[in-house]
C-alpha cells in the first residue's frame, strides 16, 4: 500500500467537445493516493464530463489520463474498472433485480475476468466489503426491496471493494442526513488510509471543507482555481464557482401579522411513522420542516398531500377538512407537492420541457370540444421558461437534456402553474448548484410575497435559515421543537437535530 | 425460504394450475391419466422447451426474439436440403444436428448485428429478420415438402428410451430425447445462474446503463445472446424435423405465441431482469397440456389458440399487478425501516 500513497491519478490538458460545444477546454488535475480531492463547479461546468472521461464513458478529444505510472489517451469502461477507477453515480447504478451480494460482487468478478461465479464466493465478497465499511445489510435481499439509504451504502461498499485506486463520488450526500453523512465521512477516512485517491464532487461547501484536502474549481470547462483546501474560504469557493458574489444572507420576506391559516394540520397520526403532529401555516408564510432521515418528515409531507396513509387526524385547508389519503383531494384543495426525487417522481424525463411545464394544469389549456389549445400551451411554456430563468434553447427538447438545477426549476414551474395555496417542497435544492439554488430560493420568496404559503422540507439547515419564517424539527415522528424567526441559528438547529 | 414466500412464487402457482387442469381433464376423460399420455406430453414439449430456453434468455435480457421459429425451420429444412443435395446420408445424427446448429447460429448472428451493432429495437429487428429468413428459404432453398428425410433423422423419430405396455391400453413410449433435453435444460440453468455471461444477461435486463457502468460490454453480451438463441433454435428446428419425420418449410409458423406465452407464464418478466429455467419448464408443460389435451374436454382446436393467447395476456397482467403491489409494499417497508 505504500506505493499507492505516492501514486498520482488525474488528467492533463483534457479537451472534449460535444457537437460544437466545448465541455472541457484543457483541464488538468492531479490527486495523490490517500488524498481526498474536491471537484467543485456549477452544473454545466464540466464536472460530469470529466468523470465520464476518467471512467471510460467518453473519449477525450485530446489530452492524457494518468493512473499511477500509466498514461492513456482514452479508456474503455472495462479498462477504467480494471485500472481501479470506480465511480459512485448519483443514481447508484445498482441493478434492482439482483441481490445485494451480487451487486457488490459483480465488479470484482469482472475485474478478475472470471467466467464463473459461485454463490459462496459472491457472499464472501459482499460480506467482506460491507464489513470493511462497517455496515450490516441482508446480502440476499434483492436491491429493489431495500431503502435508498441502504442502496447508497451498497454502492459505496461495491466501489471500495477490492482494487479501487481512484474513487469518484458524485454528490454522495444528497440523499443522506447529517448522521449518515458523518458515517460516510468515516468510511471515506478509512479508504483514504488505505491509499485510495478519492474525488468528491459536491455543491455543499460545508461538507467539502470538512472532508477534502485539495480542491479544483471548474467553471465553463476550465480550471479557475485549485490548491489546498485550507487556503480557500467559503465565500471564495462559491465566488470562484459562479463567478458571482453569492451571499447566504436571509432572504425571507417580511411576514404580515395575521391570524388566518391556510392550512391546519391536527393530530396527524400513522403509527409508528408519526404521531400527533399539529401545526398551521399562515398565508405567505414559509414553514421549514427538518429532521433526520427516518424521522418521518418525508412521510408527513406525503401524508398531507394524500400520498402516505393516515390513520387519524385532520388536515384543514381554508377552514374545510380535506379528504385524507387522496392526492387528488389534496390537489383540489390547492396543495402542491414537489417530491425529493425529481428524476423519478416529478418529471417525465423523455418528454419535452414544454409538455412537462403544462402537465399539471393541463385542464386550463383546453379549448372548446376538449382539445388542447396549442398556442396557449406554447405561450404558457415560454412564460415559465422566462420567469424561472430555465436555460434552454428550445422548449421542445426533452427535460433530460437539462442540468439538475434547470430540471428542478421545471418541476417547480409545473406546480406553481396551478397556483396552489400551499406548496410543499421536499428537498427543493437537492443536487442543485449554488447559483441555481439561490435562484430557486428567490422564486420561493417572490411567490410567498404574493401570498403563496410554503412548507419546505429539507436537511440543508443554512437553506432553511435563509428562506423560512419558522422551522419545526421532527424527531421520531413528532415535533420536537419549533423555532421562531428570531431563534433561527445554525448551531442551535444542528444541535436539536442530532 | 419460508412457506409463505414459497406459496407466492410463480412456480408454485404454475404447479397448482397444472395439477388443477390435469385433475379436471382427468375427471372428464380417463385416458388422460395414462403413462402413454404423459410420455406424449413430454414428446410434444421437447422442441417447445428448446425454443423456450432461448426465448427465456432473450426475455431476461430485456429483449424479445420473434424470429426463432423462422430460424428453427430455416436451419432444419436447409440442413435436410443440403444433405439431400450432396447425398450425405450418414448413420448417425451428428452431421444434421451440427449443420442445423451452425446455420441457426449464423442466422442468430444476423440478429446480433441488427440489434447489437445497429441498435434496432429487438422486436422490430427480429420481426424483420423473421420475414427475411422465411422469404430467403422459400425463394432460394426450397418451398416443397420433403418426406424422405435422411435415414438417421427418420430413425431417431422412433428412438425410445423406454417402452411400457400396460395391461390394457396403448403402448407408452418415452423418447430418448428426454435425456439430452434434460441435460441442455440443466446446462442453460447453470449458464444463467453460475456464469458471468448469465449474470450479465440478468444485469442487462435490470438496467442497461448500470450494466455498462459495471464494465460489462452491452454489445458483446447482446451479440452472444442472439447467437446462442439462434443455435438453440437451430437444434430445435432439426429435432422438430426428425420427430415429425418430414421437412415442411411452412411449419412452425405461429408457434411464437405458444413459446412466448410459456416463458411469460413461467415467470419471466417481459420488462427483463427476471425469469427462471424451472419456471419456463413448467410454462412449457402447461402450454403442452392445453394444446394436447384440452381437446379431451371437448374444446376445439381453434379455441386452444385463443386459450393460449388469453393465458399470455393473463400472465402479463399478473406480472403487472404483482409489480405494483410490490412497489406499494416497498414504500411501506421503507418507512418501517425509517421508523426504527
Automatic annotation (TrEMBL), chain A:
ABC transporter domain location: 9-245, 257-497
Pfam family membership, one: ABC_tran
Alphabetized InterPro entries for the sequence: AAA+_ATPase, ABC_carbohydrate_import_ATPase, ABC_transporter-like_ATP-bd, ABC_transporter-like_CS, P-loop_NTPase
Gene Ontology molecular functions: ATP binding; ATP hydrolysis activity
PROSITE patterns: ABC_TRANSPORTER_1, ABC_TRANSPORTER_2
Keywords of this entry: ATP-binding, Cell membrane, Membrane, Nucleotide-binding, Repeat, Sugar transport, Translocase, Transport
SMART domains: AAA
Record protein name field: Unannotated protein
Upper lineage: unclassified sequences, metagenomes, ecological metagenomes
TrEMBL record, chain B:
Keyword Cell membrane: yes
Main subcellular location of this protein, as a coarse class: membrane
Keywords carried by this UniProt record: Cell inner membrane, Cell membrane, Membrane, Transmembrane, Transmembrane helix, Transport
UniProt cross-references to Pfam families, sorted A to Z: BPD_transp_2
InterPro entries hit by this protein: ABC_transp_permease (IPR001851)
Bilayer-spanning residue ranges: 12-29, 49-82, 94-120, 132-153, 174-192, 225-243, 263-290
GO cellular component, one term: plasma membrane
Name of the molecule in the record: Unannotated protein
Lineage summary: unclassified sequences, metagenomes, ecological metagenomes
Amino acid at each position: 500500500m505504500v506505493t499507492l500513497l505516492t501514486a498520482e491519478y488525474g488528467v492533463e490538458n483534457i479537451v472534449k467537445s460535444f457537437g460544437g460545444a466545448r465541455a472541457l477546454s484543457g483541464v488538468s488535475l492531479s490527486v495523490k493516493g490517500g488524498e481526498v480531492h474536491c471537484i467543485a463547479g456549477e452544473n454545466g461546468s464540466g464536472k460530469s464530463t470529466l468523470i465520464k472521461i476518467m471512467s471510460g464513458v467518453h473519449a477525450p478529444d485530446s489530452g492524457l489520463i494518468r493512473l499511477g505510472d500509466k498514461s492513456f489517451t482514452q479508456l474503455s469502461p472495462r479498462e477504467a474498472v480494471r485500472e481501479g477507477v470506480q465511480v459512485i453515480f448519483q443514481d447508484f447504478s445498482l441493478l434492482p433485480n439482483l441481490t445485494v451480494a451480487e451487486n457488490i460482487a459483480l465488479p470484482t468478478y469482472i475485474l478478475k475476468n472470471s467466467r464463473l461465479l459461485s454463490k459462496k464466493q459472491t457472499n464472501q465478497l459482499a460480506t467482506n466489503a460491507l464489513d470493511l465499511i462497517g455496515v450490516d445489510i441482508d446480502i440476499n435481499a434483492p436491491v429493489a426491496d431495500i431503502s435508498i439509504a441502504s442502496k447508497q451504502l451498497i454502492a459505496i461498499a461495491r466501489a471500495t471493494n477490492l482494487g479501487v485506486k481512484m474513487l469518484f463520488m458524485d454528490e454522495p450526500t444528497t440523499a443522506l442526513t447529517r448522521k449518515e453523512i458523518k458515517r460516510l465521512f468515516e468510511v471515506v477516512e478509512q479508504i483514504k488510509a488505505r491509499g485510495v485517491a478519492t474525488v468528491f464532487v459536491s455543491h455543499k461547501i460545508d461538507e467539502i471543507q470538512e472532508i477534502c484536502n485539495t480542491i479544483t474549481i471548474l467553471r465553463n470547462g476550465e480550471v479557475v482555481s485549485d490548491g489546498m483546501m485550507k487556503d480557500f474560504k467559503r465565500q471564495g469557493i462559491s465566488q470562484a464557482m459562479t463567478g458571482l458574489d453569492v451571499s447566504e444572507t436571509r432572504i425571507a420576506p417580511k411576514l404580515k401579522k395575521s391570524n388566518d391559516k391556510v392550512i391546519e394540520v391536527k393530530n396527524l397520526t400513522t403509527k409508528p411513522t408519526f404521531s400527533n403532529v399539529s401545526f398551521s401555516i399562515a398565508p405567505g408564510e414559509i414553514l421549514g420542516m427538518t429532521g433526520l432521515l427516518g424521522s418521518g418528515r418525508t412521510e408527513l409531507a406525503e401524508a398531507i398531500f394524500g400520498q402516505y396513509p393516515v390513520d387519524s387526524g385532520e388536515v384543514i385547508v381554508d377552514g374545510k377538512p380535506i379528504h385524507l389519503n387522496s392526492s387528488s383531494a389534496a390537489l383540489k384543495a390547492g396543495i402542491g407537492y414537489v417530491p425529493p426525487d425529481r428524476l423519478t417522481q416529478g418529471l417525465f424525463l423523455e418528454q419535452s420541457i414544454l409538455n412537462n411545464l403544462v402537465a399539471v394544469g393541463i385542464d386550463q389549456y383546453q379549448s372548446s370540444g376538449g382539445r388542447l389549445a396549442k398556442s396557449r400551451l406554447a405561450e404558457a411554456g415560454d412564460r415559465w421558461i422566462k420567469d424561472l430563468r430555465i436555460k434552454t434553447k428550445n422548449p421542445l427538447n426533452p427535460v433530460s437534456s437539462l442540468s439538475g438545477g434547470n430540471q428542478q426549476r421545471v418541476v417547480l414551474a409545473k406546480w406553481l402553474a396551478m397556483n396552489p395555496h400551499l406548496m410543499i417542497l421536499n428537498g427543493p435544492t437537492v443536487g442543485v448548484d449554488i447559483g441555481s439554488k439561490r435562484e430557486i430560493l428567490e422564486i420561493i420568496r417572490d411567490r410567498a410575497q404574493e401570498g403563496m404559503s410554503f412548507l419546505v422540507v429539507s436537511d440543508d439547515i443554512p437553506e432553511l435559515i435563509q428562506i423560512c419564517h419558522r422551522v419545526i424539527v421532527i424527531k421520531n415522528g413528532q415535533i420536537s421543537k419549533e423555532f421562531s424567526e428570531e431563534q433561527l441559528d445554525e448551531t442551535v438547529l444542528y444541535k436539536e437535530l442530532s | 425460504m419460508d412457506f409463505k414466500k414459497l406459496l407466492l412464487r410463480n412456480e408454485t402457482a404454475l404447479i397448482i394450475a397444472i395439477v388443477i387442469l390435469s385433475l379436471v381433464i382427468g375427471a372428464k376423460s380417463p385416458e388422460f391419466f395414462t403413462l402413454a399420455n404423459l410420455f406424449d406430453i413430454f414428446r410434444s414439449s421437447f422442441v417447445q422447451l428448446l425454443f423456450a430456453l432461448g426465448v427465456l434468455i432473450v426475455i431476461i435480457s430485456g429483449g424479445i426474439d420473434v424470429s426463432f421459429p423462422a430460424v428453427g425451420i430455416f436451419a432444419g429444412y436447409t440442413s435436410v436440403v443440403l444433405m439431400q443435395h450432396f447425398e450425405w446420408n450418414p448413420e448417425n445424427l451428428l452431421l444434421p444436428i451440427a449443420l442445423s446448429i451452425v446455420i441457426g447460429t449464423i442466422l442468430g448472428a444476423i440478429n446480433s448485428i441488427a440489434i447489437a451493432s445497429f441498435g434496432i429495437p429487438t422486436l422490430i429487428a427480429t420481426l424483420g429478420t423473421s420475414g427475411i429468413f422465411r422469404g430467403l428459404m422459400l425463394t432460394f432453398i426450397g418451398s416443397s415438402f420433403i418426406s424422405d428425410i435422411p435415414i438417421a433423422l427418420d430413425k431417431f423419430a422412433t428412438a425410445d428410451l423406454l417402452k411400457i405396455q400396460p395391461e390394457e391400453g396403448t403402448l407408452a413410449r418415452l423418447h430418448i430425447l428426454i435425456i439430452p433435453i434434460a441435460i441442455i435444460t440443466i446446462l442453460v440453468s447453470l449458464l444463467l445462474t453460475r456464469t458471468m455471461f448469465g449474470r450479465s444477461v440478468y444485469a442487462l435486463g435490470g438496467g442497461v446503463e448500470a450494466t455498462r457502468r459495471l464494465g460489462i460490454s452491452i454489445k458483446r453480451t447482446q451479440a452472444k445472446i442472439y447467437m446462442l438463441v439462434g443455435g438453440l433454435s437451430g437444434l430445435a428446428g432439426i429435432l422438430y424435423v426428425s420427430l415429425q419425420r418430414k421437412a415442411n418449410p411452412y411449419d412452425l409458423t405461429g408457434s411464437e405465441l405458444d413459446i412466448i406465452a410459456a416463458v411469460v407464464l413461467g415467470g419471466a418478466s417481459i420488462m427483463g431482469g427476471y425469469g427462471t429455467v424451472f419456471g419456463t419448464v413448467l410454462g412449457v408443460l402447461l402450454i403442452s397440456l392445453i394444446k394436447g389435451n384440452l381437446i379431451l374436454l371437448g374444446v376445439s382446436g381453434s379455441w386452444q389458440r385463443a386459450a393460449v393467447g388469453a393465458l399470455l395476456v393473463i400472465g402479463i397482467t399478473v406480472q403487472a399487478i404483482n409489480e405494483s403491489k410490490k412497489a406499494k409494499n416497498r414504500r411501506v417497508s421503507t418507512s418501517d425501516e425509517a421508523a426504527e
